[in-house]
Amino acid sequence: MTLLVLKWLTEQLQVSKKVAMATVMSTSGSVPGKTGARLALTEDSIIGTIGGAGLEKKVIQRLQEMLSQSVTAIGEVHTYGLNKGAKGYEVIPLDSLCGGRVTLALEVIIAMPHILLMGGGHCAKAISLGLQPLGWSFSVHDTREEYSTIDGSVESHHCTVAEFFALEESLDRFSDILLLGHDWQEDEERLLTLLNTTFSGRIGVIGSRSKWQAFEQKALSVGIGQESLDAVNCPIGLNIGAESPEEIAIAVIAEIIASCKGVDPDDGNWRDQS
Fold first, then answer.
1. Apex CA 193: angle with CA 189 and CA 195, to 5°?
2. C-beta atoms surrounding 74 within 10 Å
3. Beta carbons within 10 angstroms of residue 199's beta carbon
4. What residue ranges do the domains of the chain occupy?
5. Architecture of the domain delimited by 114-266
6. Residues in Cβ contact with 193 at an 8 Å cutoff, skipping those fewer than 6 apart
7. Residue 48 in 3-state DSSP?
8. Which residue among 17, 22, 38, 176 has its CA within the 20 to 30 Å range from the CA of 55?
9. Best CA proximity match to 118, nearest among 169, 156, 146
10. How would you classify residue 125: left for phi > 0, otherwise alpha for psi between -120 and 50, otherwise beta?
């Protein structure tokens, strides 16, 4: 069962899903789950068991709370006494007749970002070079064959914009989709299509104020709501005065890191808060 749970967990992370897992670390006395037992869950599915009964119900409830509240990886260790009169330091009593004690590690595991670079030009190549030392995955789409492949990409897509979306089965495996096209019409088509999908990740668009205003006007004219448009990040990257592709890459990656860690770059540091 442990192997199945870990394999399933890995599969969920590969499609950019956040996973919570409980692992039995130690036991004493009579307990339903043995050391090494694991249970893992996402927002919509669950696998494994730590022994069932009231213990498992309690742990699942806590894992769901952790999953919904966390944006970064977190962990907790809890010791449960399997009788309602259990006492001791940091022991959580449960209404059970087993009488034993079990210690569990509860953790939320965050998937590493997988970024789709839609447009394989200079900025995409510079971004790709910055992603690789971080261990982040990236894929590339371009309508031009010579720009659809970048060293280190896990996927390369050479096709029209319409063909890409028609063939794509799960956009949610991407944490971020960056529109970096050489042709504004292609980026507009990408944006309008994305905003009509259920994609739940971050969308970023490179471009000027006038480009975004044109995109926004077109989107509103075809019935896309302002709320959806407001969720799109344009221009992409922290405001560091970036001009070259390499500078833009640093700004974009830093912005994604901040988002992944739940940090607002405008909040300042400890010196600003003293």
1. 120
2. 15
3. 17
4. 2-109, 114-266
5. 3-Layer(aba) Sandwich (3.40)
6. 161, 162, 165
7. strand
8. 17
9. 156
10. alpha
